[in-house]
Amino acid sequence: MPLLDRIVVDPEIVHGRPAVRGTRVRVTDVLSLLAAGASEAEILEDYPYLTADDIRACLAYAAAQADHPILLAS
Question: For the whole prediction, is pTM greater than 0.70?
Answer without folding.
Answer: yes
